[in-house]
Specification:
Elements (H helix, E strand, L loop, with lengths): L5 H13 L2 H8 L3 H15 L4 E3 L4 E3 L1 H28 L4 E7 L1 H18 L3 E7 L13 E5 L8 E6 L2 E6 L1 H7 L15 E2 L8 E6 L2 E6 L5 E2 L2 H9 L5 E4 H9 L4 E3 L5 E2 L2 E5 L7 H16 L7
Parallel strand pairs: 3-4, 3-5, 8-11
Antiparallel strand pairs: 1-2, 5-15, 6-15, 7-12, 7-13, 7-14, 9-10
Helix pairs in contact: 1-2, 1-3, 1-4, 2-3, 5-9
């Protein structure tokens, strides 16, 4: 058996994760034919069958499972070696995979990473916009820039900025339907429900004068996209619970009105990662940069 090529191991990991040559090819920026060829060469070098192939799907073999686990550890060790050497010289480099939600990721994380790339040209930054919780270890993600305070105990997190969600509606909606005077009255209003990442669908958890309260809400419009829900709110279609960073300007300019201001939902902004920051120069530099970026921009969540 010949020693496997590290690039081929990386290609195989992507195929195994996606159970698809096409999915792996799209992620790697390669053709599906080239991805298939690299996996075939890896199988020939190792004298094993790693994947079962059919016209409809790709599944991993028992040998493939074993190689997959070893390959992840090998590539992580190689990456950590590079990070530690780079840290000694003070210049982060290599692939940095970041994920974030659609709204916050597009509006704030993307421009911040653009500035970071200009400062550190040896960084290869990949931003994935995902409105689902990703498995950082399984999917090889370095950082999840997350809005919300629900973080699994096995993950590490660095606080980037304070943020909270507020209740709001358009003046036209409030004129037609009245202003709710208590949290319980929200059940009688059209509410714009968002299914976004780990947030419970149709259940609003709020902190108020009496502590934590929960209200179940319904409405004729729901979506998994916060910007769509915000536009519906501006159109007068219902009550919205939305991060202050997203509706601050609308509130200031009168397009939306905050209701029940004594109630809010804490939803700070976090950089979630798996390894200690000191072990990775690229992750540490990115986290520090994002924290400073959010603090310096007046339109950001913590202002």
């Amino acid at each position: 058996m010949n020693y496997p090529n590290l690039d081929d191991l990386n290609v195989f990991i992507h195929v195994a994760r996606r159970s698809s040559f096409v999915g792996a090819a799209n992620e790697l920026g390669m053709s599906a034919a080239y991805v298939s060829k690299r996996v075939k060469l890896l199988e020939q070098n190792m004298s094993v069958v790693l994947l079962h192939r059919s016209t409809r799907q790709v599944s991993i073999t028992e040998d493939g499972e074993r190689v997959y686990e070893w390959a992840k550890g090998i590539l992580e060790s190689v990456q950590q070696m590079g990070d530690e050497v780079a840290a000694l010289h003070g210049e982060p480099s290599g692939l940095l995979r970041v994920v974030s939600s659609q709204g916050f990721g597009r509006r704030f994380v993307a421009p911040a990473l653009s500035e970071l790339a200009a400062l550190y040209p040896k960084l290869d930054i990949r931003l994935d916009i995902q409105d689902r919780l990703v498995d950082l270890i399984e999917e090889g993600v370095d950082l999840d820039i997350r809005v919300g305070n629900e973080i699994a105990p096995h993950l590490r997190a660095r606080h980037l900025a304070s943020n909270w969600r507020v209740l709001c509606a358009s003046p036209a909606y409030l004129k037609d339907h009245g202003v709710p005077l208590s949290i319980g009255e929200l059940a009688n209003h059209d509410c714009l429900v968002i299914k976004e990442r780990d947030r419970p669908f149709g259940i609003w958890h709020l902190n108020g004068p009496q502590g934590a309260e929960t209200v179940k809400v319904t409405g004729s419009l729901s979506t998994n996209h916060g910007e769509i829900a915000r536009q519906w709110c501006l159109d007068g279609r219902g009550v919205l619970l939305r991060s202050l960073w997203d509706v601050r300007t609308d509130l200031a300019e009168g397009r939306l009105v905050q209701m029940l201001p004594e109630y809010r939902q804490d939803a700070d902004i976090w950089a979630v990662h798996t390894s200690p920051l000191m072990s990775s120069a690229k992750v540490r530099v990115t986290v520090e940069f994002l924290r400073d970026y959010l603090a310096l921009h007046p339109s950001q969540a913590n202002r």
